[in-house]
């Protein structure tokens, strides 16, 4: 029996582990198939406080993990395939480990960026392909960038990237955009944004030095075209990693966990959520870490209250 189990090891989960370990609660952290989360696919992280020269994403995550271990957090690797949150203690089934029981659970499984699924894309993440403008835009100062997508996120990222890029080409497979009118108007009013609509992305073209452009098919003529650029930002949304919960926690229509305002409490007492699994707005390492701290403190108070209640009832 564990006091608490943390599912996920991005900035949120690792921060929660640090706080709970320092509170002598010896949290067990379950690492999924991508330990460290999305930051492990990022090269230089320049906007995390405390690193004036920047730090590599994998190095930052490794440092946070070591910090949690130093205070007594334990780590195991495996998929959480099933959870039972109907009663305490909660039961988690972990592939390769079996059933684990805990008095509290922190869910920090994040949200996975959606990719186009075309050749040259995944293998060039960090070499010119990105899913986060605020994370990586700075590295494209004075360069030509492509943003793929037609929703509000794509418009927002395209506008943001014009702060750095010499030109931003917005590529969408249809003539019509899904984005709200105000976001479309804002993007169309930006002189640095050009449009390549009704184009289907086919391949990210790159060489040993990085991305060189995006091969697309003109849906009107059927001809293939190469849009030259030094960066390709994929902005077609995120998928929260909540499927394993099997609907036992309240989510919004997109599948993100709903937490009580001003806290990390979910719809089930004793279960807390932090990081991108409940954040549809900010999606930054530092904001994820902040909610990890909140989840740890909320969890600690919950366990104290439960213990006092148990003593009183004896």
In a few lines, what is going on in this structure?
With 314 residues, the protein is an alpha/beta fold. The protein is built from 6 helices and 19 strands.
How much is the radius of gyration in Å? 22 Å
Strand content: 25-35%
Oligomer: single chain
Structural class, by secondary structure, is: alpha/beta
Strand runs, count:
19
* Main sheet: strands, sense, barrel: 7 strands, mixed
CATH topology of the largest domain: FAD/NAD(P)-binding domain
Q: What is the CATH class of the largest domain? A: Alpha Beta
What is the helix content? 10-25%
Characterization of the model:
- With 314 residues, the chain is an alpha/beta fold.
- It has 2 domains: 2-112 and 238-313, FAD/NAD(P)-binding domain (3-Layer(bba) Sandwich); 115-234, 3-Layer(bba) Sandwich (FAD/NAD(P)-binding domain).
- Helix content is 25%, strand content 29%.
- Strands 1, 2, 5, 6, 7, 8 and 19 form a 7-stranded mixed sheet that branches. A 5-stranded parallel sheet has the order 10-17-11-12-13, with helices on one face.
- The protein is elongated and about 75 Å long.
- The two termini are 21 Å apart.
- The model has no long low-confidence stretch (mean pLDDT 93).
Provide the fold topology:
Elements: E1 2-7, H1 11-22, E2 28-31, E3 44-45, E4 55-56, H2 57-70, E5 74-77, E6 80-84, E7 90-94, E8 98-107, E9 111-113, E10 129-130, H3 133-136, E11 144-148, H4 152-161, E12 167-172, H5 181-188, E13 193-197, E14 199-207, E15 210-218, E16 224-228, E17 231-234, E18 238-240, E19 271-273, H6 285-313
Parallel strand pairs: 1-2, 1-8, 2-5, 8-19, 10-17, 11-12, 11-17, 12-13
Antiparallel strand pairs: 3-4, 6-7, 7-8, 9-18, 14-15, 15-16
Helix pairs in contact: 1-2, 1-6, 4-5
